Structure formats: C-alpha cells, structure tokens
Amino acid sequence: MIINIVSLVSLEVATATSTILLGALALHCLWKSRQYCHLPQPPPSSFVFGHLFDTWARLAHWGTRGDYPQPFLSWTEQYGGVIYLRQFLEHAVLVTDPVALQHILVANGTNYPRQPIAMDYTRDVVLGESLISVDGKKHDVYRKYLNPMFAVSKLKTFVKIFNEQTQLVCQTVLDPACDTNAPVNLSNMLTKMMLSITGLTVLGYDFNKSPTALEAYEQSMLPITPLVLVGTFTIPGFLSFPIPSLVKRRNAQAALKKILMLVIHDKLAAPNSDQPKDLLDMILPHASTDEAIPHTLTFMTAGHDTTSSTLAFVFSTLASYPQVVAAIRAEYEKITAVYGSLGSWEALAELEYTHAVIQETLRLNAVAFSTVQRVSLANDNVAMSNGSSVFIPKGTTVVISIAAMHRNSKYWTNPTDFIPERFVDGTPEWNADLALRGGKPHVFHFMPFSMGSKNCIGQRFAMAAAQLIVATLVSIYDFKPTDLRQEFSGVSLRPVNVEMTVRRVGAPSS
After folding, report:
1. Which positions bind heme (predicted)?
2. Where in the sequence is the domain holding 55, given as residue range(s)?
C-alpha cells in the first residue's frame, strides 16, 4: 500500500515537473517570438513544432511529390525576401532578398557564422575539421593555404584527367550501350566517373578500381528519411544514435577512414621529388594524417557529389531540348577545329554556350539548394532591396534558400523555363532578365556556389570538369528523355531517376 502511494506521488511529481518545464518552454518560445512580430510569417503546420515539418521533413519528400523547391518558393513569392519561421524551439528567418544576402554573407559576414549543429553535421560527414566544418580564424587559415590548390595553374594540370576519364566512360559504358540498346543508369555512371576524377585529382587514387573503397564511400552518405533529416539538424548528437541505417553508415565511415589513412601512409613513405601531382600532395606539408583526412573528404564529397548531380540534371534536361543540343554541338565543332580537342584549359575557356547551359541547369536545379544555416551573433539591422531594413535579433538562425531565389519571378523572366541564353551576355534573354532586375547583374540573385568568404573553393574545378564532360558526350551521343523529379541526397540535390537509352549522333532510330 505504501509502495503504491509512493509510486503515485512520484508519478504526480514527475507529471507536474514535466508540465512546468513544458509550460516554461512554451512561455519562453512565445516571449522570444515577439521579437519577430515585425516580420511576415507563413502559417505553420503545427502549433507545437511550428514550421519544422514544413521545411526539413518536406524536402525529404521532394523525390516522391515532385514539388521542389516548395514550400520555400511559394513562401518567398507570397511573403517577401525575409520571412520568420519557427522550427520547434528555434527561431529562424528565411532570407532571399539579394541586398540582405550581400549584407549577411559579405558586408557583415563575421556576425553570421555557420550554425553549430550544421557544422557538427559537416564534421561528421568529412570525419573532422575542414574548410566546411570550422569558422572564424581557423577557417581563414585553412582557406589561405588551400586557395593555391585551386589556382588556374593547378587546375590546368587536371584537364588531362577530366578528358581521360570522359573518354573511358565512352569506351566502357556508352559505346556498349549504343551497340546493345541497353538502358544506362546515367546517374550511377556520372557518380562513378566524378568519384574517379575527384579521387585521382584529390589524392591520386582511383575509387573505381577498388570495389571495397567505392562501397565504403557510397555507404558513408547520409540515409535520407524525414526522421533522419529532422533529427540531424535539430537534435545534437543524433547521428550517433543506435539507428540501424546510421550504424551502417558509421561502419562505412570507419572503413573509408582506414582506406584514406593507407593512401596517406603510402604517400608519406614514398615522397615524390617532382612537383605535387594531386591536392593531397599539397595538403600534407601543412597537415598531419588526421588533419589531412577531413580536407581530403571535403574535396571528395563536394567535388564528386555536387558535380555528378549537376551533370545528371544537364543530361536529363537536354533530352527535351534538341535546339540546345544542336547549339552545344556547333560550339564543340568550332572550338575543336581550332584546338584539336577539349584537352586544354584554353579550349574549355571558349565553351561559352556550354557554360551557360550548366548555369541555367544550376538555376533551375540548385544542387546546393540552401547554404549552410547561419546564426546571428548580435542584433543587426539588415538593408533590403526596397530601401527599408529589417531587425534580426541576436541568436536568430538564418536560412538562405538558393532554390527559391533562383526561381523567383521578381528576378527571372519565365523563371521555370529552361533558357540557357539568359546567361549569354548581350542576348535578348540576358537583357530581359537585366531589365527585370532594374539593370542589376545576377550577382546575389544567382548563387549556385554561395557567396562571400565561405563560397565554394572548388567552383572553377567543378565547372571546368562539367563543361568538358557535357560538350564531349553531347557531341557523340543522343540521350532519351527521363524523369526530372528532384530529391535530396544528404549533400546535394539530384534527379530521382536518370535511366536513359543512348545512341550515337547520326545513327538511325530503332
């Protein structure tokens, strides 16, 4: 009897304590939200969780619903360039106004470091501290010694690898597919090709020749479900939870780290007396083995995943635009007539229209659809395009939707249409967009690689590789239309399904 009474009292105390704590949290949340009453707010789907399931959970369903980049685009067009969102206990602003972005990313960028939980995620992805997982002075130090690795003089030495791997894919995958009329999973092909390219350029290692390494790398990617996405970006330490898919991922990460350590050990044991051949050769003089692994994985992940996703979108889109394909082929023939091939940096620099095709693809399908979230260190007044300003309180999470900005009808004519000419200076399409923006260029309206001191260090690498691959493959093959729904891979946006049939240019249709 006494035990029952004690148990009942304990239960009542626990219930009362929980009620008080939840009440206190609710009151704190309501008090905090008053600081944002000056900002427009879309109605949240949940009284308790606010917009949490409208953002992270919804993007996990883009691949099945086909509604990318919602709800961010509709919110932006209805409520404006700075919007208040409550993601459970987190207070955030969604920013797409170009003048506000210039302030946040450049003019007052030191007041907006990356969000700690977002950096925890990137540290987990790259197994430690690197350019994408640190902030402040350490970021500046890393950027200073990594910048020379992506200088044009270094990138020129990689063009040969881009070309060789592209030709290898033609010989081993696309030519046989043409002969047999068998469908090709272009997404898998491009992923493996870019993994091989980044492996060779970053650390002199061909992942495609090592099935174990390839499997470890692929399984180290984040499994995408609403639970995983919401948990990863709202619950500290979530990625260490004993969830089967996360346990499998951690085991793959351990195997991948072991492989990278062996590669680094071999390099250190047999130093090359010649000039550095890959990026790891340039990193090792500045870093220990443990420090070099995160830098290596940063370039591997960013270089292969985002570029292969971009290429998959390019080929998926081009299948429906024969006039664009014809223009790419004409440009290819003109340039190769002068240079003999695309195997030089100078030849790649002439691919103006192909470059525009890739830019337009990135506008419509921003593989980095949002920058890493920021958080304000101090109260700030942020200028807006219309001449007004908005107050952003200290501790506010800043969400930047590149995808919504890229499709905003305020800045782009016919924003959902694929029009590469809008990125060719002086064309009617270029001028139409320019007029819509009041004569302002597309800087801070088009940000596929972000902006400011934390922009993508490897963007010239990615664009050069993509230009060579697109121009070469389009000059040789025709690709059949496919599914263009988008999904989030955990690192970037990618097409859901890119299984296509290919045939050589000029070959009769079957």
Report:
1. 456
2. 35-504
The tokens 């950027």 sit on which residue?
Answer: 143
* The token pair that represents 262 in the structure block: 């062996």
Q: How far apart are CA 158 and CA 169, in angstroms?
A: 17
Evaluate whether residue 15 is within a structural domain: no
Return d(Cα 317, Cα 418) in angstroms, integer: 8
Residue 140: both structure tokens together: 């500046």
CATH at 50: 1.10.630.10
Separation between Cα atoms, residue 443 and residue 285, nearest integer Å: 36
List Cα–Cα distances, 19 to 6, 26, 143, 397, in angstroms: 20, 10, 48, 27
Cis ω on the peptide bond leading into residue 69 (within 30° of 0)? Answer: yes
Each residue of 349-371: pLDDT tens digit? 999 999 999 999 999 998 887 77
Chain segment 290-335, per-residue pLDDT in tens: 888 898 888 888 777 889 889 999 998 998 999 999 999 999 999 9
CA distance 345 to 169: 21
Q: CA 388 to CA 349: how far, in whole Å?
A: 41
Burial call 342-374: b when 16+ CB within 10 Å, e when fewer: bbeeebbebbebbbbbbbbbbbbbbbbbbbbbb
DSSP 8-state code for residue 109: G
Q: Which two tokens stand for residue 398?
A: 């800043």
Structural domains of the chain, count: 1
Distance between CA atoms of 187 and 194, rounded to whole angstroms?
11
Contact (Cβ atoms closer than 8 angstroms) between residue 408 and residue 366: no
Q: 420, 470 in Cβ contact below 8 A? A: no
> Does residue 298 lie within any of the structural domains?
yes
For residues 360 and 3, the answer to whether their CB atoms sit within 8 Å is no
User: Do the beta carbons of residue 478 and residue 505 sit within 8 Å?
Assistant: yes
The sign one gets for the Cα dihedral 177, 181, 186, 188 is negative
Q: Is residue 510 part of a domain?
A: no
Sign of CA dihedral 231, 59, 133, 90: negative
Annotate 248-316 with three-state secondary structure: HHHHHHHHHHHHHHHHHHHHHHCCCCCCCCCHHHHHHHHCCHHHHHHHHHHHHHHHHHHHHHHHHHHHH
pLDDT tens across 49-75, in order?
Answer: 888 888 877 776 676 677 888 899 999
**5 in a domain, yes or no?**
no
Please state, in angstroms and as integers, the Cα–Cα distance from residue 291 to each residue in 129, 382, 470, following that order: 7, 37, 35
β-bridge partners, 184: 500
- pTM here is 0.88
Any known ligand binding at 170? no
End-to-end CA distance of the chain: 85
